[in-house]
């Protein structure tokens, strides 16, 4: 898993629920910090992570921010995207997931990174339980990424 200080590999991925919509890390980072959540293919594991990130009042932390969910199961991701206020992207074959060093051998492993405007990782977390993710640390990394 990549760590804080590492360059965040750029990606260009389609939305799981709308393949015509595509998103690029570097383009999003030009506008402000980017939170990327690599989610499990297991919806019961992925949904809590996406919901926790969706529940954050990001506007109280920073003016401009992009949040993406990324996963490798298009059908599961399309279901997960319903009701989530940010794009959930399909990483066909797990190429981007591999670039970030997220363990795909464990179907329950997930990760969150915060990238700044230069696409440098400011925060990195990986784990199976979304409740273990310290949202305060994510929010602090987002705030620091704007300085």
UniProtKB/TrEMBL annotation:
The organism named in the record is: Halapricum desulfuricans
Q: What is this protein called?
A: Peroxiredoxin
The record's section on Pfam families has: AhpC-TSA (PF00578)
- Domain called Thioredoxin: residue spans: 2-143
Record's SUPFAM superfamilies? Thioredoxin-like
InterPro entries xrefs? AhpC/TSA (IPR000866), Thioredoxin-like_sf (IPR036249), Thioredoxin_domain (IPR013766)
What GO molecular function terms would the record report?
A: antioxidant activity; oxidoreductase activity
Coiled-coil residues are none
Gene3D superfamilies with a match to the protein in the record? Glutaredoxin
Q: Which gene encodes it?
A: bcp3
């Amino acid at each position: 898993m990549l760590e804080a200080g590492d360059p965040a590999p750029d990606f260009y991925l389609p939305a799981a629920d709308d393949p015509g919509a595509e998103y690029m890390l570097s383009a999003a980072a030009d506008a402000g910090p980017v939170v990327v959540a690599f989610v499990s293919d297991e919806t019961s594991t992925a949904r809590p992570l996406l919901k926790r990130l969706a529940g954050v009042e990001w506007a109280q932390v920073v003016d401009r921010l992009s949040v993406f969910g990324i996963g490798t199961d298009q059908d599961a991701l399309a279901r997960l995207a319903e009701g989530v206020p940010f794009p959930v992207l399909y990483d066909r074959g797990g190429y981007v997931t591999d670039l970030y060093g997220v363990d795909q051998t464990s179907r329950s492993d997930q990760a969150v990174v915060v990238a700044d405007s230069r696409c440098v990782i400011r925060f990195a977390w990986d784990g199976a339980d979304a409740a273990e993710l310290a949202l305060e640390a994510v929010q602090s990394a987002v705030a620091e990424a704007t300085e």
